[in-house]
Every structure is written in C-alpha cells, then in structure tokens.
Amino acid sequence: GMNMFISTGINDSPVITGVAALQMVNAAFHAAKFDVNGNIAPAGAGENALGLFIATTPETVNAGEEVTVQIKDIGLWVTGDAVAAGDELTSNENGAAVPAGQGDYVTAIALEAAPAAGQVIKVQIVKSGIRP
Fold first, then answer.
1. pLDDT band for position 4 (50/70/90)?
2. How far apart are CA 84 and CA 7, in angstroms?
3. Which end of the chain, N or C, is surrounded by fewer C-beta atoms within 10 Å?
4. 39 vs 23: CA distance, rounded Å
C-alpha cells in the first residue's frame, strides 16, 4: 500500500505556522483559530482556539502572510477582564483571555492573576474542550 508517513520523527515544536485569513492588527498575545479554509484568524468569544499568536507577531499582518501560533506549553495571553491564577480561560470577542463560562471552549489555565483587562499573563495552553 501507499506509505502515508512523511517521516518517523514526531514534530514536538510548540508552534505552527499558517496563513493569515485576513489583515490583523496587534494580534500578538491574542487567541488564534483555523477558519473554514484552514487559514488562521483571531478566535472569537468562547470559540475553539488553536493557540496564541506569539510575541513577535508583527503589529500588522496582511491577509496571505505567514503567522506563527503557539499551540502548547506555557504561553502569554493578554487579558480581556480580571483573571485569577488557576482560572480556566476562554477567548472573548477580541481574542483576549477571560474566565471560561458554561459552553465555552477552555484554551488555557491562568498561571498568574491579572487585576484587569490589558495585562499579558503566563498561561498553560490546555485546549481541554467545552466547559460543562
């Protein structure tokens, strides 16, 4: 039969690269998702995020340009509200971290607290599905 394996190695990189679905401004530290075409877009409220746009994401990314998303391990996520250490986090409508509610996808666990929106905090990316 046909060999479908590219190699015997496992890619253990914490990041992937993809194509920006649309122009994004200040996407760094915000949640990312795949769109219906498999391109990368900002995650919306409670959505199933792929991970977080890395710190070195350019201030403006144009549609069709390459972007890098951290998909596992400890990352940095900007808050959209006050967050306590240990909170299960989801994305708000702007891709910022907020405590997850019922029916939201849990993307990460807060590793430190933030008193308000606009703080960049360390999080453990977990992608543990929908919060019951």
1. low
2. 42
3. N
4. 12
Measured between alpha carbons, how far is 83 from 107 in angstroms, rounded to an integer? 14
Q: How many CB atoms are located within 10 Å of the residue 104 CB?
A: 20
Q: Which segment of 10-14, 46-50, 91-95, 114-118 scores lowest on mean pLDDT?
A: 10-14
Q: What CA–CA distance (Å, rounded) separates 15 from 20?
A: 15
The CB density around residue 43, as the number of other CB atoms within 10 Å, is 27
Alpha carbons within 13 angstroms on the beta-carbon side of residue 43 total 30
Helix residue ranges, H only, the chain: none
For the entire predicted model, the pTM comes to 0.91
- Going by the DSSP 8-state scheme, the letter that residue 14 receives in this structure is S
